[in-house]
Amino acid sequence: MYGAVWRVLPGPLAVRLVLVLLLLAAVVAVCFLWLFPVLEPYVPFNQQTVEEPAP
Amino acid sequence: MIRALVRGVGELLVTAGALVLLFLAYQLWWTDVVGDRAQARTTDALEQQWDAAVPTDGTSDEAPEPPAEAEADPVLADLPSDVVAMLRVPRFGEDYVVPVLEGTGDLVLQDGVGHYDGAALPGEVGNFAIAGHRTTWGAPFNPIADLVTGDAVVVETPEEFNVYRVEVTEIVLPTDVRVIAPVPSQPGETPTEAWLTMTSCHPMFSARQRYVVHALLESSTPRADGPPAALQAAGVG
Question: What b/e sequence results for B43-56 when a residue is b if at least 16 CB atoms lie within 10 Å of its CB, and e otherwise?
């Protein structure tokens, strides 16, 4: 999987390294801005309120 | 063939591990960055707005003019629409101030402390019940366990400073809604006193229990009279 990505990237080593960093940054951004905020409510250590038990 | 399969599975596992670590970084670092920024922006704007609306000397006959530039000011335009109050707790630090917003949904609690729907308003007879994060999202109630009997909790509104004094703290189950009853722990009773109740998670990073602090109203003074002694002692205002 990662090997295939590396082979697909064009250019010499330096260019490939820069592209890999950019790809990683994009993955982190997608996670922080979209994926994790959606997952967060299902992680059970973040509740601050007292509530009636669900029926 | 086998080798490719093993490598594929290995890469998937490494990826999953990296994502879990990334999620930790998000929770422990990024949510604080975003939460602190949103809360500071709100309290900055509120301080500007409320100070502009009230004559500070308390003798001016002019009705406080609603600041006309407020509409145009981009800082004020940023305000959440459902601000209830600002919360100051000298025990948490001299310059500790967080916004109190209406509701206790996940999104509300990311931007400040949440006011339980239907609970009493600041200074009102009944129970001004609020919830806040103890970890992540700016963690406004992070030091909640430091509060001891007699500590001041000040709820600031456009009109008043309401000073509450901590009476009792307790640790309860998440389903224990009696703590936010109008008379705390006595649901169904008709309230005659003004309480404040703070709820947050306990232990930290767990949803197993709730840490609860009850405080009783000591005084309500108009903003025009300046910050109350409880805040002046802490160097605020």
Answer: bebbeebbeeeeee
DSSP secondary structure letter of residue B224 = G
Q: Is there a catalytic annotation at residue B223?
A: no
Selected residues 5-24 of chain A with any CB under 8 Å from a CB in chain B: none
Which single residue is written with the structure tokens 């209406």? B102
Interval A5-55: pLDDT, tens = 899 999 899 999 999 999 999 999 999 999 999 999 888 777 888 887 766
For B43, B112, B118, B206, B217, the CA distances from B121, given in Å and listed in that order, are 19, 17, 9, 29, 12
Q: Does A26 touch chain B (CB under 8 A)?
A: no
Close Cβ partners of B91 (under 8 Å, ≥ 6 residues apart): B143, B146, B147, B148, B151, B152
Q: In this complex, do A52 and B175 lie within 8 Å of one another by their Cβ atoms?
A: yes
Q: How far is CA B201 from CA A19, B48, B53, B152, in A?
A: 42, 32, 36, 21
Degrees to nearest 5, angle at CA B112 with B104 and B160: 100
pTM of the model: 0.85
Q: Is B153 exposed, middle or buried (0-12, 13-18, 19+ CB in 10 A)?
A: buried
**Inter-chain Cβ pairs, chain A and chain B, closer than 8 A:** 72
Residue of B201, B202, B214, B223 with catalytic role:
B201
**Which chain A residues touch B19 with a CB distance below 8 Å?**
31
Verify cis geometry, omega within 30 degrees of 0, for the bond prior to B203: yes
Q: Write out pLDDT tens, residues B159-183.
A: 999 999 999 999 999 999 999 999 9
Q: Do B104 and A48 touch (CB under 8 A)?
A: yes
Which helix (DSSP H) or strand (DSSP E) does residue B85 occupy? Answer: strand B83-88
